[in-house]
């Protein structure tokens, strides 16, 4: 790895550590520079702003998880249905990331209204996972579990829907702060999505789970508790 690439990775490592320890909003570019003994020129040579650092961190974390997932799928002897359920569960933001990072994304994207981070994340998901989902769909067609005339295209559509669902779940949680009952809306939305995937793939009724409901609900409730706690402290 080139010296410049090493410096860039070091900035990302330091920033990620500070974001987790202090919070994204409470960490400034100067804090990152001070922690590294780095000049402003050294920072801005690689990044335009603090949010661009968070975008890179998010992409790096996602790519690491997706590479691990691809390896698991490659070595797995699971049926196509079980592979699809596992993949989409792993792609769910609330199951894929630890609570602190989810909270950070929610605050930056949905409270502060910065959409660049999620736009980049959506593209990474499509680029990295579309070939993998298509392989699973082809396997499902061979096994007789799925039927579609477009096995090479439907995977991207499923991921686009998944991205939209993640996005809407996040919006529901942010809008529903202070109201734990908002998780009911999350359940309803996830169930509609699950049924839609079964229809798109002509999969057997009830075969598609896509997510672990208990884990998703636990993560959603934890996000609400964390938001309420932080907002109370700020008030």
UniProtKB/TrEMBL annotation:
The UniProt entry, under Pfam families, shows: TetR_N (PF00440)
Query: A single Gene Ontology molecular function, please?
Result: DNA binding
Does the record carry DNA-binding as a key word? Answer: yes
Q: What is the source species?
A: Candidatus Pullichristensenella excrementigallinarum
Q: Which Gene3D superfamilies match?
A: Tetracycline Repressor, domain 2
Whether DNA-binding counts among this entry's keywords is: yes
* Swiss-Prot/TrEMBL keywords: DNA-binding, Transcription, Transcription regulation
Q: Provide the protein name.
A: TetR/AcrR family transcriptional regulator
- The segment(s) forming the HTH tetR-type domain are 5-65
Q: Which residues bind DNA?
A: 28-47
Under PANTHER family, the record lists: HTH-TYPE TRANSCRIPTIONAL REGULATOR YJDC, TRANSCRIPTIONAL REGULATORY PROTEIN
